[in-house]
Specification:
alpha/beta, Rossmann fold, binds (2R,3S,4s,5R,6S)-2,3,4,5,6-pentahydroxycyclohexanone, Dihydrodipicolinate Reductase, domain 2, 16 strands
Length: about 350
Amino acid sequence: MSAQKDLNVGIIGCGMIGTDHLRTLTEAVSGSRVWAVSDADPARAAQAVEQVDPTIKIHTDPHALISDPDIDAVLVASTEETHEQFVLACLAAAKPVLCEKPLAPTAEACLRVVEAEAQVGRKLVQIGYMRRFDPSYVEMKRVLDSGQLGEALFLHAVHRNAGYPDRYESDALITATGVHDIDIARWLLGDEIVSVTTRNPKPSALVRDGFQDPQFLILETAGGVIVDVEIFVNAHYGYDVRCELVAERGTVSLVPPTTASIRHSGVDGHPVLADARPRFAAAFRDELQAWVNAATNKQVCGANAWDGYAAAAVAEACLESFGNHTRTDVRLAPRPSLYTEDDK
Ligand code: ISE
């Protein structure tokens, strides 16, 4: 019997995350090969392949990459306003697609993708919520699902970045950053978030006027679990993602990947990582390996299009509450039957 052929992947978007995925797929994932890339800036595409493997083909038109008969699966890492059109084109071509988060900038646009996939009648879309593959979160879910701690009661989450690019507005703390915590809460608890409240402390004096940083979200699930999320994107000292699950008989907390313990100048401590890339290196690698394995069989794993839509709908409710600080219901469209097998 012949060995299975490697999956030929096309990557759209050669910015930081697209180039990281290009490198990880090439160097650390088995069963795939990056066949072609495309970027709105052809020079950036050329630079990315030059750094990793100059034999990779460059498509100037991303739609030509999607329809290239040599491409089996597509990774979308372009700017978020372009995600919808590329994912819809992948669905029309019946090609598995891993789309970076968020699936699209609005819940309405995410829902169009959900509806298109439901029409196709089979799941092809995976969303890059990579925390679902992080060993610490995986262990947290395993312990909760084992039942040994009883039912979940609270989830306390902290999401701090050392610094944030100036081009972003206050909304991005929810739509680009807190959305990871929204997704992980839904996944860990196996429950939909039904209402949200955004409460903001006084902004840090170290950020520009009018930029609300930090922010605080309170999310309530259908099953009555309360999730609180601190988002602070100019925390200065480093990248710090924390999570503690409180259940009836115990708690589980994340242990960030440890490097070395350093004793220096009278202090014994662990260095704080600089950003998401070292912190979630294992998660990114395992996410890509799981996607390649699933896509080889024309399947997906991890967060699906419905998860992408639900996270966006919760984020939108948080933005609504940001304006008035009141408890706001999350309004979800009916879930197509394609996704009901994932119901917990
Ligand atoms: C950023 O927006 C991301 O998407 C990263 O994945 C996340 O880890 C980071 O903290 C966010 O700010």
